[in-house]
Amino acid sequence: TYMRGGTSPAMKKVRGGGRSKVTNETQKTWRGHAEDEGVSIKPAATLGNVAVPADVKVPVVDTRESVQEGECSVRLLSLMRNAEAFDRERLGYRFVKRAFDIAFSACVIAAAIVPSAVLCAAIAVESPGCPLYRQRRVGRIGADGRPREFTMWKFRSMVKGADQMKDALLAENEVEGPMFKMRDDPRVTRIGRFIRRHSIDEFPQFLNVFMGDMSVVGPRPPLPREVAQYDEWAMQRLAVKPGLTGPWQVGGRSDVDFDDMVRLDLGYIARRGVMTDLKLILQTVAVVFTGKGAA
Fold it and tell me: In terms of pTM, does the model score above 0.85?
């Protein structure tokens, strides 16, 4: 099965010279100062000509192969707990990060009330139904070892009943691993294509940030059925609070497969800090305007 595999077919294609939309700026972000943070980046794992973390020694193990070569008796959550314990020691950074999340999300919510009302009306006119879409997502693993779920909000970009239509489209999935991405998804409305391209559909998640379910920057929250397919290596990305944006969003979005997304997330967890978060936010603004890498 996939979760016991090594390198995905998509990754092999990229290594062979396939097109990648990961930017040079992303390369600078994840290679710069890596040594100071205990992160070793090897050129063996690349997206086009851009290196991604291939061997993060502390506090995360960042290759599936290194996990598989370890002791088989190790519990599924053990590596994730190591990364989680490392993060809990950073009290100053966590305090600043939460204060920023509250202040920034409050400003965005206040500024977006009127435009959001107009967009909701347009969505309802094109496709009858509630203009807001809610979905259960996994935040992080709790102390009891169980995934903490929360309700994540979006502007609805698909026709009503899109979830029930998904099973019929699984064969068209364009991403390796426990994710579903389809560039020409027939469920997406005309307005939906525009707001998805520019990530406007994600704006209601600032409510999740304000309430503390998410952070502005962090790994994207997965679906419960996706987490059920995670192995020990992938489970490490649940060691921290999920985010509205992160390295995956600025590093290619739908042009990046599952393994590469996990590598980027674990690289972020190992060396995240105030300056890294601010750089990712600025890079996200550029991606929102250009729509680069959107499905």
Answer: no
SS3 assignment for 115-168: HHHHHHHHHHHHCCCCCEEEEEEEEEECCCCCEEEEEEEEECCECCCHHHHHHH
Enter the tokens of residue 121.
Answer: 């009306």
Q: Are strands 243-245 and 215-217 parallel, antiparallel or unpaired?
A: parallel
DSSP strand pairing (147-155 vs 132-141): antiparallel
108: Cβ–Cβ under 8 A, 6 or more apart, which residues? 203, 206
Tokens of 277: 């978060």
Cα torsion angle, 40, 280, 234, 89, sign: positive
Cβ neighbourhood burial of 83 (10 Å; 0-12, 13-18, 19+): buried
Task: Please name the residue that has the structure tokens 């990305």.
Answer: 237
The pLDDT-based confidence of 68 (bands split at 50, 70, 90) is low
3-state secondary structure the chain: CHHHCCCCHHHHHHHCCCCCCCCHHHHHHHHCCCHHHCCECCCCCEECCEECCCECCCCCCCCHHHHHCCCCCCCCCHHHHHHHHHHHCCHHHHHHHHHHHHHHHHHHHHHHHHHHHHHHHHHHHHCCCCCEEEEEEEEEECCCCCEEEEEEEEECCECCCHHHHHHHHHHHCCCCCCCCCCCCCCCECHHHHHHHHCCHHHCCHHHHHHHCCCEEECCCCCCHHHHCCCCHHHHHHHCCCCEEECHHHHCCHHHCCHHHHHHHHHHHHHHCCHHHHHHHHHHHHHHHHHCCCCC
Beta carbons of 249 and 260 less than 8 angstroms apart: no
pLDDT digits (tens, 9 = 90+) for 212-243: 999 999 999 999 988 888 888 888 899 899 99
pLDDT at 61: 57
